[in-house]
Structures are given as C-alpha cells and as structure tokens.
Amino acid sequence: MLQTTPGSRGKRTRQLPGPLTALPALSSAQQALLLKWLKSDAQERSWQSLLQAAGSSQLEVADALLQTLLLCGGVALKEELHHGQWRPWRVVWTDLEGLQTLAGVSTRSQRDADKASLSMDLQALAQAHPWLSVAVHSLLNDVLTVASKTARAELLQALVVWQQAQRQGMRQDFALAARGHTKAISGTEWDWLEATVPLETLGIGRFEPLIWLAGSIALCAATESIGPPTSWAALGFVGVPCRCLDASLRVARAPQSYWLIENRASFERQASRLPPGTCLVWLPGRPSSAWLQAMRCLLTLAPAPADISCDPDPAGIQIALTAGALWDAAGIPWQAAHMASEIWRAGTTLPLNDYDRRVLAELQATPGLPPGLASLRDDLLSSGTKAEQEGWL
Question: Name one GO molecular function term (predicted).
C-alpha cells in the first residue's frame, strides 16, 4: 500500500515503503520511454520535464508508466493540490542506479569505473609501447564518451597486434584486421590516428608508399635505360614506388651527397634550389619499413654522405637518428643540418609538452648521440621550447 507523507501546504509525497526489487512487465512503448527517462543521472526530475521527454503523442504512456513505477517502488511522487485535485509535480527515483541496472541502462558508477579502468589500461599500453604515448595522451585528455574512448583504445590495441606481426598494407587492410570491414574506421578516427600515430612507419599507407627524390640522381634498369641518364632537376621532384627500388636497378648518375628533409613544404621549396651533385630526399616523419628499405637500396647503389634536416624538437632528433642509422650501417658519414638552436631560437617557437619531455629523458639516456643532436637535445631542455623547420628552410 502506498504511503502518503504530508508536505508544506498543498503538497504531499506518495511512495511504496520498501526497496525496489523488480521491474514489472512494461509495454514496448513504456520500455522505450523509461530508457529515455533513465539516460539522465539526476536523482529528481520535474514531471513536466519527463512529459517533454515523452512528447505530446506519448502523454498517456507517460502517465501509465509513472503509475507503474510508483506501485513497484521505483519512484516517490511529489504532488501538489491544484483546483481540488492532486497532480504530479516532481518525481524522485528511490534507487536510480538499481532501476537503471534493471532496465539495462549504464549507471554513473559503472561509467566511472569503466573510465578509471580504461585510463589504467591506456597508461599501461603507453608504458609497454612508448610509440603510442602521443595517442594515449590525446585520448586521456579528449572530451569523448567512454564508449568512443574505448573504441579508439581498441584501435590502439589492434595497432600493437599489427606492429608485432610486422604486417604491411593499406589503410583498408588495417581496418579489415581491426574491425572486420575495410570501411569500419571513420574519417574522424583516421584523422586522430594520423595525428598521433606514425602510421607509415607501422606499414599502414593511405596509398602505395613512395620515396620522393629530387636533384642529381638518375636511375636505370640494370640491362637498359628507363630514360635518358639525366637528373630529375628539370622535373622538380618525383615520387618513385618504394617497391621499385631494388637490386635490378643501376645508377646512371650518382649524387655527391644526399640531403634528407623532414618537412614536406621545405622539401618542395628546396627542390628548386639544389646545388649540383645533391640528391634531395623527403624524409617522412617516422619513416616506414618500405621507405627505409628503398633508401637502404638507394644508398647501396649510390653511396654518398648525407645531411639530415628534421624539425628541431625531440621527435625530430629521433627521426634523424632513425635515418642516420642507414648511413651508420653502410659505414658512410652523415650529420644533422639546419637544426642548431642559433637557426631557430629567434623565430617562432612552441613550448615542450609532457611527451616531448619524456622523449628528451630517453635521449639523455641514449649513448653515442652525435654531437650536433646532443647539443640540440640540451638546448631544447634548457629553453623549454621547440620549433618547426618550415619557418626557415
């Protein structure tokens, strides 16, 4: 039997004594409306707001649902006297999370627990795989629902599986592996992945991987010339499929030196200003295994020393080291160029973030860092700033 508690003048509260133990049978319309009502975590709602959620065509359904919830102990109903009749005024959930659980709606406690668990999983993921640190940091700070964050975290886990299997392929191949369909990753998710993860390095290409070259180099087939043995200076620059650079080629005109530039705009700008004898190569950030193999082949066919120019930031140092390792393995000298602090410090700079500082800490523990890059590392630490080479190169 319902218990009535008098309130201030003209108001009362009615409810069923005892806890809510079960949800009675509801019509499909009542079930749909209850799910709407329970999406809010507010402990108390005005009756008018619940009617608005129901819509003008569902007023009778709303009234019937309210009475059902009252009789099962799901709500306490605050009423007010209006022209001699008691009318619903405010609705109080007697056990909101219990009712949400019975109705199959996630509770705030569940979402908070899921959020905490996801945060711990992401931090563990970044610790085990430091190359995911930027993506994890972004995800932890993004204003997204737990469901969206969980979906993106699953993409990061799929990247780990892909990387450990040393797979190579297009974006569609990764989407198929991660979610079972080539179009299952949204454009927004791809934008996020592209901004936070070295996709090309992981062998996930938007298109067939190319190596972009300019200047004094000419390639021919081993048995016959592909074209006149001239440099590509007249063309500006060209993109060669990485798979085409192999032992079947020979160099008809070899460069005296290589110059690798990370920033694409800087690469294109410098392609028209090259001194004779220089082969310019675009060094994509975190180069893929396909690019590294193509560059390794090119260096075997036409060995020459290199200048390597990357953004003067912690990641730029790492990228320069990755590319320079090819020259180290071939026993050919290389050096960092156009990265010294006197070049960029007077221009536009950016503050170091937490990821930058973690990378710098790793670089401090890296033995045998070339003097130019070691000096840059120390300058970044002391100034607390970094820059982008497009501003001067």
Answer: DNA binding
